[in-house]
Amino acid sequence: MTGLRRLSFRAGTPADAPVLARAVADGFEGYRAWAGPAWRPPDEASPRGVRELRERLAAPGVWSRLALDDGRVVGHVLFEPARTHRDWDGLVPGVAHVAHVFVDEEWWGTGLAARLLEAAVVEARSQGYHAARLWTPAGQARARAFYAREGWRENGATRFEPGLGLDIVELTITLRDDESAENADTRRFTG
Ligand SMILES: CC(C)(COP(=O)(O)OP(=O)(O)OC[C@H]1O[C@@H](n2cnc3c(N)ncnc32)[C@H](O)[C@@H]1OP(=O)(O)O)[C@@H](O)C(=O)NCCC(=O)NCCS
User: Fold this and answer.
1) Which residue's CA lies nearest to atom 4 of ligand 1?
2) pTM
3) Model confidence over 65-117: pLDDT tens digits?
4) Maximum Cα–Cα distance across the chain
5) DSSP 50
6) Less Cβ around it within 10 Å: N or C end of the chain?
7) Is the shortest distance between the CB of 109 and ligand 1 below 6 Å?
8) What structural domains does the chain harbor?
9) Could you tell me which residues come within 8 angstroms of residue 38 by beta carbon, excluding any fewer than 6 positions away?
């Protein structure tokens, strides 16, 4: 089999943390192509990075989907309830935060990333979220073009992300209209 048909898909579990952390680290390595010679990628595959991702995968409300080629993870997406700040507990009502969209370079341009992102959007909508957001590096032109093509819109928010050492921009997508969003909020926080 060729193309996406050869892939299988499943939810991620805390046991996947080492593999997914390595995928994120490899994705960040690729940023060297445009981030400039002085930039150093964070080591997401460090013991601390793996531990944090393991905890994240076990946290309430976290949803992930992994794409596997003959048992090997070649892409994944992960979303969680949006927070007012990375280290704070406050939730942004009704908003999902897409934290990871990472695909191995050999699968770029195949439609896999679009398939994973769409699965996350469909799931977030069915869970009652009325919008989703994500942040991506300002210099990551490929990701920005990808998200724009998939219907996400940049809202002008930008900030420096110290953990990454890069400026990042925010993108959002509406999942439900306002009326259903009110119901969605209720379901989301009583569920
Ligand atoms: C971002 C990512 C998930 C996108 O998946 P992908 O398979 O590469 O995306 P696609 O090929 O479907 O779409 C990329 C689009 O960017 C365009 N593009 C490619 N390089 C570009 C560049 N340098 N500048 C502008 N647009 C570019 C492509 O032409 C394509 O648009 P089109 O279909 O309208 O022609 C994938 O590249 C990836 O995993 N990158 C590393 C990790 C990462 O940055 N993740 C996002 C973190 S938030």
Assistant:
1) 143
2) 0.93
3) 999 999 999 999 999 999 987 666 799 999 999 999 999 999 999 999 999 99
4) 49
5) H
6) N
7) yes
8) 3-190 (3.40.630.30)
9) none
